[in-house]
């Protein structure tokens, strides 16, 4: 609850500030939900990219030998699932 609440409150305040700004700028009322949806979509997209990058940075890199071994194991597993055994 500690990390969700501040982000939610800040997001709601941001959306409300943008909404008021659109009213003050006399933007067409039909565009307000479109702008709010675009902001939410952008926030979710950027959060997803951020989490992906953080996950990749936290994971140790595989050496070439380890990568080859895991790739070969995945291929063998895939062939076994398909019923193609040597």
Q: What order do the helices and strands follow? A: HHH
Number of contiguous helices: 3
**Radius of gyration based on Cα positions:** 23 Å
Gap between N and C termini: 52 Å
Largest sheet: none
Mean pLDDT: 79
Oligomer: single chain
Strand tally, please?
0
Sheet/helix structural class: mainly alpha
Summary?
78% of the residues lie in helices and 0% in strands.
Key features?
86 residues; mainly alpha; elongated
Please render the helix and strand layout as text:
Elements: H1 4-24, H2 32-58, H3 64-82
What features would you describe in this structure?
- With 86 residues, the protein is mainly alpha-helical.
- The protein has a domain at 4-61.
- 78% of the residues lie in helices and 0% in strands.
- It contains three helices and no strands.
- The chain has helices at residues 4-24, 32-58, 64-82.
- Helix 1 (4-24) runs antiparallel to helix 2 (32-58).
- The longest helix is centred in the middle third of the chain and has 27 residues, at 32-58.
- The chain is elongated, with a radius of gyration of 23 Å.
- The mean pLDDT is 79.
